[in-house]
Amino acid sequence: MTKLYVGNLPWSATEDDVRELFSGIGEVQSANLILDRETRRSRGFAFVEMSQGDAEKAISQLNGKDFQGRDLRINEAMDKPKRSSGGGGGRW
């Protein structure tokens, strides 16, 4: 599976909107619209998981495409750097 970053989403877009958009290209394994922790409103980006071939098609067909009045930014998601759980800094 390949995880895609989908940026520049309109605030009104829902997870179902994102899933529907990508399912027109291939099978969507998961779609996750990122919400603000406090307000529960969209932060304007999502992550979509698809097979490698479908992900490549989605990038080429949807990157820069107008979606509900905004030009989408789509690329392969980068892994989040791992945080050290050690503490360091002289803690005992």
UniProtKB/TrEMBL annotation:
GO MF entries: RNA binding
Annotated CDD domains: RRM2_NsCP33_like
Superkingdom of the organism of origin: Bacteria
SUPFAM superfamilies: RNA-binding domain, RBD (SSF54928)
Residue span(s) of domain RRM: 2-79
Keywords of the record: RNA-binding
InterPro entries referenced in this protein's UniProt entry, alphabetically: Nucleotide-bd_a/b_plait_sf (IPR012677), RBD_domain_sf (IPR035979), RRM2_NsCP33-like (IPR048289), RRM_dom (IPR000504), SLIRP/GR-RBP-like (IPR052462)
PROSITE patterns recorded: RRM
RNA-binding keyword on record: yes
PANTHER family: HETEROGENEOUS NUCLEAR RIBONUCLEOPROTEIN 87F-RELATED
Name of the protein: RNA-binding protein
Protein's organism: Candidatus Thiodiazotropha endolucinida
Taxonomic placement: Bacteria, Pseudomonadati, Pseudomonadota, Gammaproteobacteria, Chromatiales
